[in-house]
Amino acid sequence: MINMRTRNLVASIFLLFLCGGYAYLTVNLPTRAIENSTQPSFFPWVIVIFLTGLTFLLLIQVATSGKQPNIERKNQVPVKRLIYGLLLSLAYLFALPKLGFVAANIPLFGGLMYLYGERRPIWIGLGSIIISVMVFLV
After folding, report:
1. pTM value surpassing 0.85
2. Torsion on CA atoms 20, 25, 30, 31, rounded to nearest 10
């Protein structure tokens, strides 16, 4: 058993190290100045700044929260489901260059819906198609 405060503290420390490493890599990006446009090294800095800000908010939440009760694990994910999810993800990665984004996402989302308990084939088919198209359009 571990309480949520400890989990958040460990996660925030890990994220701070991740932000530091990502910022170090961002500093070393080459400068390619194009007139009247943002440089390619601008957007990684946006990611670093926002992720660091969210990490500090998590640290503030840990510092201001009082004692929290312990959390017990109620439901363990079966190992068989984890293996099927891993195999499904690997199959998706291998199919992605051959089928394309939308066509490869349809069986991925259908398989994930089945793994998470949906058993109605019409819902699986329609849901996976609609989700794939919406992810592509958005």
Report:
1. no
2. -20
